[in-house]
Amino acid sequence: MTTPWPADAWYLQLADLTTDLRFRRLIHSGQSVELPQRVFDLWLLLLSEPNRLHTRTELFDRLWAGTIVEDTNLSQNVWLLRKALGEERKGWIRTVAKSGYVFEPPEPLQWFKQLPPAPQAAGEAIASADSQAFAEAAEYVAFAESQQAVLEEPSASAGPMAVFDPVPLSMAVEPRPLPLPAPLPARGLRGGRRAWAFAVLGLIVLAGAMVLFAQRWNGFGRSEPKLAVALVTIEDLQVTSRWPAKLLEEWLSWKLGSLPEVNLLSESDLVADQGSGTVQVVFLSSVRVPNDPEKIALYVRFQEDGKEQRLEVKGDPSEMPALVDSVSRQLVARLLPAREAPWPALELSAAAAQRYEQAALALDRRDWMSAVSIGSEIVESAPRFGLMRLQLAQAHARLSQGAAATAQMEVAVKLLATAPPEAADLLEAQRLALDPRRGQDALKAFSALADRHPDKAAYRLQYARLLVNAGEPRGALAQLADAGGRDVIGLRIAKHLLRADAYQVLGDPARMRTQAAAAERLARDAGAGWTLERADALLLAARADSLQFPERPVPAAYEQAATLYEQGGNSTGALHARVLARMAGPLTGEADAALGALLARANAGGYHRLEVDVLVASADQYMKAGDADTYRARLLQAAAVADASGDLLSMAQLDFRLLRNDMLTLRFDSAAVRIERLRSMKVQGNLGTASEQFAASLLLLRGHYVEGLEVINQAERLLPAVPAGHAESEAHAQLACTRVVPLVALGRVPEARRNQDRCSQSDAVVSRSRGLLSKTYIELLLGDRIQAATSLSQAEQSLPNKPPERWIQQLELARQATLLGQPEKSERIHAQLLPQLQPTGYTAYVAQTMTGQAESAAAMGDWARSRALAAEVRQTIPADVWFLIKRLELLAIADALEHGDRRTAIAKASALHARVHRLGDAVLEMQVHSMFEPGVLDDDCSAAEREALVARTGMRGSNVDWLNLSGPAGRGTSR
User: Fold this and answer.
1) Rg, Å, the chain Cα set
2) How far apart are CA 651 and CA 643, in angstroms?
3) pTM for the whole thing?
4) HSE-up of 937 (CA within 13 Å, CB side)?
5) Phi-psi region of 305 (alpha: psi -120 to 50; beta: other; left: phi over 0)
C-alpha cells in the first residue's frame, strides 16, 4: 500500500484526531487508545485512499490476503472502527449499499514527526482504557483470526424451531403517561441495536472475540446476579440478510430475559459504564453466503472458559426461522446448561420473519402505533408466533387499547406455555398486568417475583411501575430506593424516570422536575444511544413546569422532547409530546384546528389514551368559548373511548373532571356519587388527593366544617412526609390553602395563620395568591383593617393569569373589597366578570358573582337592587349551598332591619343563629351577634358567652359594619 505521508512520519492529524503510527493509537484531548492490528490496517488504508469506493471484495483481498475468513469479519472491523472514531467522526466512513465503503474526511490529512498540539473539538473525547484490557483485546483478535476457517455446514445437532418473547416490552422501563400521560415508562433492559456513544475502544468489544466487560448489573439485589448478558447484533451492508440475526436477538432476549438468573444489558449500558463485574457479550450476525448468495449464514460468537466460541449455520431463507430456533437452543444450553429445555417452538414463515424485523425495530424505538400496525399484520400470517403476540399485547397496552391487549396476551400465554416454570410465572404476571380488571393481582404477582428473585432488577422495576400506574406512588418510591452498590446506566436512568412519574402522581412537580433533570443529565452524558430516554426526561420536566407554573408560557422542553422522539424514530412519542404541549397552552376560546389534527392522528393510530387526552383538551376549548353543551359532549365522547378500550385510569380521570363540573354547576348530589365511586376505585396519588380535596370542598360548601377539615387532614396523611430542611410539595401547599377555610370558620385563627403561611410559601402563583387573600381575610376578621387593605392590594397584584383560577380569586378579591368598605371596587370587578362567566354554564361562579353584587349594592344603600339580585340567586341554587345561602340570609336580615321590620329580622336571625351553632360557624355567629343586643334572639348567647367567643377567637372584626346600617332599628351594640 502506497501512502501519501512520508516514511519518517510518526503522527497523522485529521481534524481533532491524531493517529500514532508507531503504537497504533488514536489520540484526542490528551487521551489515547490502541487499536487491534486489523482495525488499524483498515484505518490506514482508508486514510491513504479517501473519497473513493472500497468494495468489499477489494478490502478482503487487501486486508486478509491469502486468508479465508468469514464475510462478517469485514463488517465487524468496520463497525469497530466506527466505534473507535466516536459519534462525531463515525460518519467519515459512508456505507454504499451492497457495494462497500467510502472514506470522506472533513479536511486534508496532515503528518508530523513530533506529536502535534491537539485541536479541541466539540465532539466527545476518546476514552482512555486500561492497558491490560487492550492487551487482552489484541490477544483475542489474534486468536480469533488464527482460528478462522471456511464457512461450514450446520452441525447435525441443530434442533427444531424456537419462539421468542421480548424482554424489551415485557420488562420495559418506559415512563408511562400518568394522569396526564407522561408518561409514561424507557426502553427495555435488553440488547437492542443503539447508536453507541463510543469513546473509541474504551469497551474493547473486538471482532471475532468476546472481552468480558468490566461492569455489573447490580439491580436491587443483595448479591451479584449469576449472569449478565449483552446481545450485540452486527449490522451488515446487505440489509436483505440481517433479519435472521434480528429474529435471533429478539428470541434470545425473551428467553434469557424470562429467567431470574439473567440480567440483560443494552449496548448503551456497556458503553456508558465502567464497573467491576463481568458481562457475557454475545455477537450476532447474518449475511449472504459469498459463494452461494441464495443462502444466508447466521453466526453467534461468545466467550466460554476464556476462549472464543462460535455457532454458525447456513441455509435457504425458508429454513432460517428453524435455524434461528436451533441456534437459540444451543446458545442457551451453552450459557445456562440447566435451561436447555423445555422451550416453545418458533412458528412463523420466512416471509413473516422478514416482516417481523420491522416490527422489532419499531418496538426498539417504542413507536407503539407502528408496532401495532405491523404486528397485527404479522399475526394474521403467523397466528402461532407467540412472541409477536406477546409484544403486540404490550404495544396495545401502551396505546391504552386494553381489550385488544388482553386478547393478544391470552393467546400469547397459551402459545408460550411450554417455557420453564419461572418464565411461565413471568408470563402470568404480565398477563395480569395487561388486564385492567386484575390490577391488584398483577401487583401481588410482581411483588412475589421481586421478593423471590431480588437480584432480577427488571422484576422490581416492573413492580414499581405497576404501583405508580395503580396510583400507589409512595410504594413505588420505596421500591426504587437505592440499596447500595452501583447500578448500570440504564437502571439509574430508569429509576430516575420512574421516581419522576411517582412524584407527578403525588402532585409534587418540584421533586418531579429534579428526578427528570437527573435522568436527562445521565442520558445526555451517556451519549447518543440514549435519545429516547432524554426525550422521556425532557417531557417529564416540561410536564412538571406546566403543573407548577401554569401561568407561564408553554415550556420549550415539549418541542425538544418531540424532536428527540423523532430523531429516535418514535412517532408515537413525538405525537404525545405535541399533544401535551397543546394542552399546556392557553385556551383560545375557539375550536383548535391543530388539536383536531392531532386527534385524527391519535384515532388513526389507535392511541386511545392520547385520543382521550385530545378530546379532553378540545372540551376545554369549548368550555372557554362558553359552549357548555359541547364541552360535556366531548367529555362523554372521551369516556366512551376509555370505556371501549378498557382504560380504567382514563375513566377515573374523566369521572374526576365530571366531578369538577358537578361542583361548578352546583349538582352536589351527583358530585357526592362521583366522589364515592372514585373512593371505591381506591385512587391514590395526585388524582386521589385532588378527589379528596373536592370531597372536602363539597362538605365545606355545605357548611360541614369539622367533617371537611378531617377529610383534608386524611388527604395530607396520604402524602409522603417532607424530609427535614426540604420545601413542601405543591400538594401539601394546596391542602394548606384549603384548610384555612374551615379553620377560620371554626374560629381556630392561630392554626389558620400557620396554614396560610404554608399556602403563601408555595412556588405556584395560584397558591401564593390564595395565601395573600387568606391573609387579608384573617386580618380583617382580627380587626386590623389597615394591614388587611395592604394585603388586599398585594393580592390584587399577584392574581393568576388564567381562568378559572383567576376568576375564583377575582371573586374573593371583590368580596373582601366589599368587607373593607370598598363596594365600588367590588362592583367594577363583578361587572367585568359576569359577561365572561355567564356563557360558561358554571352556575357556582355566576351565582357567586351575583351574590357579591347584591352585597356591594346593599353596602352602597341600593337595597332594591340588592334584594332583586338575591332573589335571582336563590332561584338558581339548591337549598344546601351554605356558602352562598348564609350570605343571602345575612343580607335578608340586614334588609329587614334597615327597613324597620324588626320582627322578621329577629325571626330570620334566630333561625340562622341556631344553624350556625350546629355547624360551628364562629364567623357568621359573631356577625349575627353584631346586629342584635344579647338576649334578643331565640336561644341567644349571653353577653358573657359572646365576649368569651371573641376572646377565644380574637376575631373582633367579624361584624357587619360594611353594610352601613342606619339608625338604631334593631342593631345591637358593636363589639
Assistant:
1) 35
2) 7
3) 0.56
4) 28
5) left
